[in-house]
Amino acid sequence: MLEFVEIVAESSLIEAANWKLEFNETDSTLVIASAGAADISGEGLLLSLRFAVPDTALGLIEILADSAIFNAGETPVERVSGGVRVIMPLPGDVDLNGRIQAFDASLILKYLVGFLNLSRLQLSNANVTSDTTISALDAALILQNVVGLVDSLPVDTSDVGFIAAGAPNMPTLEVQPGQTVEIPPHLHESENVLSLEGTSTYNPNHIDFFADFEWSESLATFIFEIGEDVGSLSFAGAGSQTFSQLEDLGRLGFVVNEDFEEDETIVNLKSFRLNENEVLEDEAKAVLSRVIVGVSEEPKTSPTEYALLQNYPNPFNPTTSIRYQLPISGLVKIFVYNLTGELIRTLVNAVQPAGFHEIEWDGMSDSRIQVSSGLYVYRINAGDFVQARKMMLVR
After folding, report:
1. Distance from C-alpha of 139 to C-alpha of 129, rounded to nearest angstrom
2. Are residues 281 and 321 both part of a single domain?
3. What DSSP string runs through 295-356?
4. One domain, residues 17 and 63
5. Cα–Cα distance for residue pair 231/203, rounded to 1 Å
6. Does residue 93 fall inside a structural domain?
């Protein structure tokens, strides 16, 4: 049985109309009377009842609306009874369905990047490390429990076995207005990493984030969530297996604004956390320096490695640009395929010099037929370098 505590009129219709409230409580019945000089009309919260739930309570406890009289009783009233369902806390059961599943881990990651809110009970169940925070490590341990690597939850993570190592780093790059640039965050000397989370900030007047973080293939067993706000990115990832000595985390894709005139702009790793280590603040930054290129000039630096960048815009209609870079001259082939593997268009098939290159696709096939909306794959072959990416055409 519930224990009645009080009537709460705050932010209610009764409070707005300045009505007086009286009540009388017995063991199982609560009689409430309220009246005032002003009329109440429209829809909204009439009042709230606050109860305390005993430690022994479990399951559905009904709260019945036995009767309701408005004015002198001539106003028809539809009564709908309700109740309180008392759920036994189950560490790891974030969606409160009575089971621990990988979906519970994904809810934690969505919460960390700001996609959703969790109730107090959900937060309690999510905290399977029993510390003072909800972290991506909680999601990782839920995944480990699902696949049988952890027998039960919660897990005591106070010993050194759950301490991760790794130093984040981001490069300095030279860019031009209108250029698509991919920033590769690195993690040096990583050890025992089950989860990572953090935020990055940038100046939206200088650059725009245009695509999801493309994570390294070495993190294929991890699940990730990315949250985007103006000038800010939040990320959280977790896996059931630890990784060590992984240098390349993936790629952050930005496009430099056409009117970018500053000498440089910065993408800052505002916060970063491995497992449930101490949160690192302002630990790394990528400096994007503007390169001035004249009509007959070439960029001051040549690329040191092959790269195929994400097309921009994406999705696109009717055209999109594909940028790529070559550290040495050689035969280059760039093809567009549909998802069945059929060749749609040959964009490049020629010997090209080292440097930064760009090609445009107009959504046409080699037969000059306009292709339909959908996902397409573009692939580059240059020497021993082969890479493919997906793009979406929207008619």
Report:
1. 10
2. no
3. SS---SS--SS-EEPPPBSSSBSS-EEEEEEESS-EEEEEEEEETT--EEEEEEEEEE-SEE
4. yes
5. 6
6. no
Q: Do 166 and 285 belong together in one domain?
A: yes
Q: What is the dihedral of CA 230, 232, 237, 243, to 10 degrees?
A: 150
Buried b (16+ CB within 10 A) or exposed e, 227-262: beeeebbbbbbbbbebbeebeebbbbbbbbbeebee
- Amino acid, res. 202: Y
Does residue 372 fall inside a structural domain?
yes
- Domain stop point among 161, 186, 205: 161
Token pair recorded at residue 194: 């089950």
CA–CA distances in Å: residue 108 to residues 34, 95, 117, 135, 308: 43, 10, 10, 8, 33
**Mean pLDDT per 10-residue run, the chain (395 residues)?**
91 94 91 94 92 88 92 89 88 95 97 95 94 95 96 89 91 86 88 96 92 77 92 95 86 88 94 95 92 53 82 86 91 94 93 90 92 93 93 87
Domains identified in the chain, total number: 4
Which range of residues forms the domain containing residue 61? 3-86
Same domain flag for 261 and 380: no
Helix (H) or strand (E) holding 140, with range, is helix 136-146
Alpha-carbon distance values, 287 to 21, 63, 345 (Å): 63, 61, 36
Q: Which of 248, 277, 252, 280 is closest to 266 using CA atoms?
A: 252
157 & 169 share domain: no
157 plus 178 within the same structural domain? no
115 lies in the same domain as 210: no
What is the distance between the alpha carbons of residues 166 and 196, in angstroms, rounded to a whole number? Answer: 10
Q: What is the pLDDT, as a whole number, of residue 219? A: 87
User: Of how many residues is the chain composed?
Assistant: 395
Looking at the domain assignment, is residue 94 inside a domain?
Answer: no
Report if residue 295 sits inside a domain: no
Q: What is the pLDDT of residue 295?
A: 45
Query: Do 327 and 389 have their domain in common?
Result: yes
Of residues 387, 381, 315, the one with CA closest to residue 348: 381
pLDDT of residue 212: 60
pLDDT of residue 184: 85
The label of the residue with tokens 């969505």 reads 110
Question: How far apart, in whole angstroms, are the C-alpha atoms of residue 34 and residue 13?
Answer: 11
Phi and psi, residue 5, nearest 5°: -110, -55
